[in-house]
């Protein structure tokens, strides 16, 4: 969303206030023009013979977003059998989906094998079971490089105490399992965390992963994960994707020359591709002043956008209804019966009840992490594409809240007796 003539507009000059009139609030809005910009930026940053970008769909799993990434030429990174099934249902070929679960049952992994997708294993116990039963199915192995990286301890996944991946110090045991079972290892994978700022962290991880790769003869691809940081506020630091692309491409080319053939370089960005494409539009229910704080209470809460409470994440907040008003200081809070604070002492154009506020960077890990806490409905979602808006998820109703609940007969009898 961009500022045009003191008014915030989406691509195609779509006015977000018009979307609120049409679809109501709270409302998630996604802009395909920004998704396309981000996808092309990362594709153009890497100059290698074989490049594959797999969208990490846990960031935003709406089927229309997945279909758009398929249209752009992306593959799919999934972490559950349900995401695998969604990807297949929208038309992704099995070979274009990689399944990277964590702490799931072997039965779930067998379900993914049956679907024909790429299997990525991060546990020696599961690797042994896999090798005993599925020697003919190629597999990828997720390595834990023991690198602490990322914007928060909650999103760092490659450090020594992480539950993700097989430790690099356990590689001798991995090789024994591979030799004993005859598994064909077609890929190696690493993901150190999210919101990584320094290209040097990727290069450090690259050296570790490529050194491991030298000991596997049948590789077809190497997956460096993702974690590219986007800007969440003015003058914020973000990953220099062009610098990263140049350095990783040069190093990967040298590796392939020494390896004897060109492998596919893979990445699995999620936040980088969809975060900036999303906006969350809410209405102000109350403006409440205490002895020290002015609260703006909105028609949403941690049930719709939990990142500020869960990760201490920052989202810029704008008053779309008063683009020329004088700024004041507000603390933005939700309507959930918890301390669901979105922003403390934010400088925002003067807010009145009924105004529409916009949360920026709401495309990744926002709607997809939503819940029905306090029995609240989940918001509608709208896709803006080439100047037109499309409803891609309807707002929930009481029927949705109750549809999977079953009234036990004994309670019916108890009510009759009373």
Provide an overview of this structure.
This protein has 418 residues and is an alpha/beta fold. The protein has two domains: 2-29 and 275-402, Lyase, Ornithine Decarboxylase, Chain A, domain 1 (Beta Barrel), CATH 2.40.37; 46-269, Alanine racemase (TIM Barrel). The chain has helices at 16-23, 32-45, 63-72, 81-89, 106-115, 124-133, 171-181, 199-213, 241-259, 271-274, 307-311, 398-402, 409-417; strands at residues 2-4, 7-9, 27-31, 51-56, 75-78, 97-99, 118-121, 139-144, 166-167, 185-190, 221-223, 264-267, 278-289, 294-298, 317-319, 327-333, 341-349, 356-359, 380-385, 388-393. The strands form three sheets. Strands 3, 13, 14, 15, 16, 17, 18, 19 and 20 form a nine-stranded mixed beta sheet that branches. Strands 4-5-6-7-8-10-11-12 form an eight-stranded parallel β-barrel, surrounded by six helices. Helix 2 packs across helix 9 (241-259) and helix 8 runs parallel beside helix 9 (241-259). The radius of gyration is 24 Å and the shape is globular. The N and C termini lie far apart (57 Å).
Can you tag this structure with a few keywords?
alpha/beta, nine-stranded mixed β-sheet, Lyase, Ornithine Decarboxylase, Chain A, domain 1, 418 residues, single chain, eight-stranded parallel β-barrel, TIM Barrel
């Amino acid at each position: 969303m961009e500022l045009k003539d003191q008014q915030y507009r989406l691509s195609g000059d779509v006015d977000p206030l018009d979307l609120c009139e049409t679809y109501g609030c709270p409302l998630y809005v996604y802009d395909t023009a920004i998704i396309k910009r981000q996808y092309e930026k990362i594709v153009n940053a890497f100059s290698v013979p074989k490049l594959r970008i797999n969208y990490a769909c846990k960031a935003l799993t709406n089927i229309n977003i997945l279909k758009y990434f398929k249209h752009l030429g992306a593959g799919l990174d999934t972490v559950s059998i349900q995401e695998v099934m969604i990807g297949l249902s929208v038309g992704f070929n099995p070979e274009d989906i990689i399944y990277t679960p964590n702490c799931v049952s072997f039965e779930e992994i067998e379900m993914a094998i049956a679907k024909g997708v790429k299997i990525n294993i991060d546990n020696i116990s599961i690797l042994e079971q896999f090798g005993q039963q599925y020697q003919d199915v190629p597999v990828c192995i997720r390595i834990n490089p023991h690198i602490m990286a990322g914007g928060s301890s909650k999103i760092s996944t490659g450090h020594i105490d992480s539950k993700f991946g097989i430790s690099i110090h356990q590689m001798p045991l991995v090789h024994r399992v591979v030799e004993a079972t005859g598994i064909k290892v077609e890929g190696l994978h690493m993901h150190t965390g999210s919101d990584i700022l320094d290209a040097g962290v990727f290069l450090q991880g690259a050296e570790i992963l490529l050194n491991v790769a030298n000991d596997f003869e049948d590789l077809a691809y190497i997956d460096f994960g993702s974690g590219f940081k986007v800007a969440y506020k003015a003058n914020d630091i973000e990953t220099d994707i062009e610098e990263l692309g140049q350095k990783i491409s040069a190093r990967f080319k040298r590796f392939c020359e020494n390896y004897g053939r060109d492998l596919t370089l893979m990445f699995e960005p999620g936040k980088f591709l969809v975060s900036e494409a999303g906006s969350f539009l809410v209405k102000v229910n109350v403006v409440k002043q205490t002895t020290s704080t002015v609260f703006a209470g909105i028609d949403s809460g941690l049930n719709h956008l939990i990142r500020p409470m869960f990760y201490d994440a920052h989202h810029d907040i704008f008053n779309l209804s008063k683009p020329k008003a004088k700024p004041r200081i507000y603390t933005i809070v939700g309507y959930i019966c918890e301390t669901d604070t979105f922003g403390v002492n934010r400088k925002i154009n003067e807010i009145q009840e009924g105004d529409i506020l916009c949360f920026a960077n709401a495309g990744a890990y926002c709607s997809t992490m939503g819940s029905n806490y306090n029995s609240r409905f989940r918001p509608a979602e709208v896709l803006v594409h080439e100047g037109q808006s499309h409803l891609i998820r309807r707002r929930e109703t009481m029927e949705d809240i109750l549809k999977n609940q079953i009234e036990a007969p004994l309670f019916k009898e108890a009510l009759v007796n009373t």
